[in-house]
Amino acid sequence: MRIVVGITGGIAAYKAVNVVRSLVLAGHDVHVVPTAGALRFVGKPTLEAISRNPVTADLYDGVAEVRHVALGQSADLVIVAPATANFLARLAAGIADDLLGTTILASEAPVVVAPAMHTEMWRNPATVANLATLRSRGILVVGPEKGRLTGQDLGEGRMSEPDDIVEAALGAVATRDLAGKRIVVTAGGTREPLDPVRFLGNRSSGKQGVALAEAAALRGADVVLVAAHLEVPPPAGVRVEKVSTALELDEAARRHAASADVVVMAAAVADYRPASVSESKIKKDATGEGLALELVRNPDILTALAAERRPGQVIIGFAAETSDGPDDLLRLGREKIARKGADYLVLNRVGWSEGFATDGNAVVIVDAAGDIVAEAAGTKLEVAHRILDLLR
Ligand code: C5P
Description:
Blueprint: E1 2-7, H1 13-25, E2 29-34, H2 44-51, H3 67-74, E3 77-83, H4 85-93, H5 99-105, E4 111-115, H6 119-123, H7 125-136, E5 140-141, E6 145-148, E7 154-158, H8 162-173, E8 182-187, E9 192-195, E10 198-200, H9 207-218, E11 222-227, E12 239-242, H10 246-257, E13 262-265, E14 272-274, H11 284-287, E15 295-297, H12 301-307, E16 314-321, H13 326-340, E17 344-349, E18 360-367, E19 372-379, H14 380-389
Parallel strand pairs: 1-2, 1-3, 3-4, 4-5, 8-11, 8-13, 11-12, 13-16, 16-17
Antiparallel strand pairs: 6-7, 9-10, 14-15, 17-18, 18-19
Helix pairs in contact: 1-2, 1-8, 3-5, 4-7, 9-14
The chain binds cytidine-5'-monophosphate.
């Protein structure tokens, strides 16, 4: 999603950096528009580095590309955090004498504001009336909370926490087309212990599975994330069950699948585990120059889930292949879905720089008959939404 984050001139501006960061990490294209006041609290280099996009606050920059309206027109969502009393007054009056003002006026996207100010300013009748005007126009107001303000003050007016702002804002734009569906998503890479300090693992970051859980929750689903080792935090609004080994993932996935409408197996499950786990650290002097490990097969969880599926339950698997090309990838995918019995298989090509641990992804989705039903490329969140579109 293309998101404009407006930052206005209050001390909570330093916390807005975390709003930007969360949105970027979730795969959004974030454009920060600070007011002149905001730039006295946080520097432009910080905002550019965190948003990964150029930042301008000047109405007269980029006139040739009509930036004062282009940003607003192309936005899917506008968030203003912190929103000062002054900014709320200007927004209520429709004043557009800076880039943030014109951007918002030129936008038809949902607008979310997170006010932050001292308690007296928050309670001032002018602010109260401005808030009522903004709400009546459909603007979503998040917070403020009661808590510590600048200086010694305690009271109402503290900006909501960045993650709460992000969650409320993303929730405001989401279509709730998966409301009532119970979805289990497995994500991350399993670890198979060799001894108390070593394991066999893989390079899965868990990002695609986490994006799927996040997208499903935003669309109203009741989501359980069975999380093997993740390199990113789990999203808000989902139940998380942590697991480590393939056998633990098997047990948790099957237990949750028993009451789920959809199971998405995005986890990278180890096919083999050590036949025995050493009670103590394996020592070099005891093993000599070489060390042969005996491995045994792990159960194929996807195959078992597909075989045990409840009537109407949809099972989605993933296939990460180092194929020779698109035809080869498709052939491998068709063979795999026939063997595993899933309803859909999401195919992506992995290599040293593709798929695993990257922020973007490109996939082809085949159905049980092996026909291509969708293709998607973009951020992992965008790809997640295309996968979930299959469930509508
Ligand atoms: O056979 P392969 O590992 O390529 O299949 C990938 C798909 O199967 C993924 O959806 C993965 O989560 C699932 N899988 C599984 N149990 C295994 C290995 C893979 O469920 N032991």
